[in-house]
Amino acid sequence: MSNPLKQLSEAGQAVWLDFVDRTFMNKGGLAKLVEEDGLTGVTSNPSIFEKAIGHSDAYDEQLERDIAEEDVSVETAYEALAIADIKTACATLRPVYDRLGAKDGYVSIEVSPYLALETDTTIAAARRLWAEVNEPNLMVKIPGTAPGVPAIQEALDAGININVTLLFAIDAYKAVLEAYISALEARVTRGEPVDRIASVASFFVSRIDAVIDKQVDERVASGDAEAEALKALKGKVAIANAKLAYQHYIEVSSSQRWQALAAKGAMPQRLLWASTGTKNPAYPDTLYVDTLIGRDTVNTMPPKTMDAFRDHGTVANTLVADVEEARHVLAEVERLGLSLDDVTSALVEDGVRSFADAADSLYGAVAAKRTQFLGDKLAGMHEDLGAALQGEVEKTIERARAGGWSRRLWAKDASLWTGADEGKWLAWLAAARGEQGDRAQLAALAERARGFRNVVLLGMGGSSLGPEVIGLILGSGPGAPTLHALDSTDPGQVRTVAEATDPASTLYIVSSKSGSTMEPELLRAYFWARAEAVLGAETGSHFVAVTDPGSKLEKAAQEKGFSAIFAGDPGIGGRYSVLSVFGLVPAAATGVDIAHLFETIKPMTFSCGPDAPPADNPGVRLGAIIGTAAAQGRDKLTIIPSPKLRPFGAWLEQLLAESTGKQGKGIVPVDLEPLGTPDQYGDDRLFVHLHLEGDSSADHAALDALKAAGQPVVTITLHSPEQIGQEFVRWEVATAIAGAVIGINPFDQPDVEDAKVKTRELVNAYEQTGALTPESPFFEEGPLAFYAPSGKSGSGDGAAILKAFFDEAGPGDYIGVLAYLERNAAHEQAIEAIRVKLRDAHKVATVAGFGPRFLHSTGQAYKGGPVSGLFLEITRTPAEDVAIPGNKASFGTVQLAQARGDLDVLAERGQRVLRVHLTDEAAGLPALLAALGA
Ligand SMILES: O=P(O)(O)OC[C@H]1O[C@](O)(CO)[C@@H](O)[C@@H]1O
């Protein structure tokens, strides 16, 4: 005996299934419905796939296979799963399609819900899905939003079957039917066939009642005078709305315009009742099927509704019954001020949002599985944040998800930050994909560099720190030269590099994005003269430049006959440039295999992609954590590296500090501060353990103790040192996102400039007068001379002055030791001792920098970031200075000018500062350590 579902088709209404699931289809569930219930179609949507893929392991095998190719994005991986299912469903329905001569037997797949409000990308997506599924009984589903309608028309015009989804309002449906007819007419005009183009208009039903009924209940509860009339509308409005939509369909079908198309074989665009599962348990479970039965329509049912209807549905020609009553219902809706227009437009918005939410959850599930399958190919991350911070982080992640931050980052949407020029500074995303740097030019350099023993890199900040990390962690390739990165004007340091590198066997890389930074200019003058004395006319062949097009350095390199000039991308700021030529040129010159580097990086770049929602996007997630921690007062990001990864912090410091430290906000990175016990820390820290698998250093136990004491710790695990390349990508994304959380532009560095200007003034004055502007210490003791900006001083002996200064440190403050000294092991040790002493005495974070290196890095945050610093600046009179060819000022003079300029600006910004000048280089530092008790 024919069951009610079958009777429906006999009454002219197609029964479709609003459900797809691989296991269900593999077990023959779909075929059974076709066979036994007369099913003639299938619809899917992002929520349906989310349920299927996100909550079962039926897709794991394919997913694991697909993402073995690591450059498969989450979206591509998801689509491959969905397309495979849709093809299976198309094959199951194909006999129906053939039997009915294309009148039915369709399977729908929806374009990405993120595109619901974009015409062009929707058209492109529809074309892509149509081509990829490549089955005549496919329908591509496009939301019938205002921007969707032109996309629908264009797709139909191109011969693609379309299921228009998310229709709630009769006017929206009218626009869609018009688009269908116009598309067919255009085809007829061009002499193209129209008899195989199918379309349905999916009119959503139950959601309307869900909203209206709620409004009715609220008004009744508030004692509305029209309570009875309002109550009479409950459960009626959605059906009335659908009935009147059908009346429009009948009207248009009988029009001459349609008849002309029908004569050419055009099939009607059927109304499809969607959202037909009953939401209100008080209503019959077959309500939205029983009441909407009519010819040339479709009802797509979730399995539960289908089972209910099969069991106890009633088939009658209800759709055209009681039309006057339907009109009355809608008139009542208006009379009672319920505004169906408002309800339906809100429902469209909700519908778009809820499909996007479902897609987020779906993409998140795919991204999480992807991470699982990538295993050790992807550096891992684990959080122990403590309940309070974790709760705040989850709120940020939800805000980021709802706001589409992963997508907006990659779309270079400046409104993610301050809406300034941020969009212009995101070319580092392409660099992360390995799209920067001419590989042939790099290979040629690598080949030529093999003839050298040393590579001397002259550059500051972003032009030196990344290459130095690569050089120190990955090392030189076999037979390739050794890297010496020089980012200082310290005469001792300049001399050390000069003495270690014979010009005859040295390749010099002068690296500056702007091409006008003072330090590389002076270093270039010095090393050029030194090389020229040995190499004469051959000097240029030992020099290469890396700089942005049109810079002063580019011009100088051309004039001097440098052997190569590598052009940077002006769309990348210095600190984000490591995977562009600024990092790749020194890496290639020292024999790093660039292709292999990007192979290693790839899993991270894809995992941080636009389609990986924040919770499952390693970069965005980390950004949410560090940004939220900073906003909650945990703004001292303390880097605890495995020994082999120690160099990474210098690069990370610049990235975090220069990007976020401005407008009195931001993150203060704390690098190379030895790990202490819980009692030595306040509640302003976030620890990041940069862990290299296999390292069993003592820090593990200390970190466990911190976690147990409630300090937040993020553990990042690299499975090999090579994965350091992945961390460049993760942290660049994280920093950009942290900028969005903190609410600043992470791509400018406004405060660095001020110190540069002050330094320039001092150096220029020196060039004219032969002396720096005079200054006098407020106190002298042996080899120590104490300076403070005007009006500030101290009393007692050196130890007392230092004590009084540091005693000002309170909770949340930090102490900075800014050493304008040679960066060498002995000085590093001395500074570490000072930091530990001060941290333990005052329970505050300590940072340190060698000047002028840190000026182009953390200096931005010290000047523009939180005004909670106490800075001890250490300068000295060098025992042996180094002259700079073509300049009156020596390196020692320039360095001192930089220190003074820096101190002035720090003081101007309200930071607390004290300078100790070592008048005797050898005796000074021990005397200072003694005065500090370190
Ligand atoms: O590559 P350039 O233009 O010489 O700049 C070096 C560094 O100086 C800074 O501009 C800060 O002074 C950094 O942002 C940059 O990385």
Automatic annotation (TrEMBL):
Active-site residues, Swiss-Prot/TrEMBL: K141
Keyword annotations from UniProtKB, A to Z: Cytoplasm, Gluconeogenesis, Glycolysis, Isomerase, Pentose shunt, Schiff base, Transferase
Location of this chain's protein in the cell: Cytoplasm
Keyword Transcription included in the entry's annotation: no
Primary role: Transaldolase is important for the balance of metabolites in the pentose-phosphate pathway.
Entry-linked NCBIfam families: PRK03343.1, PRK09533.1, tal_mycobact
Protein name per its UniProtKB record: Transaldolase
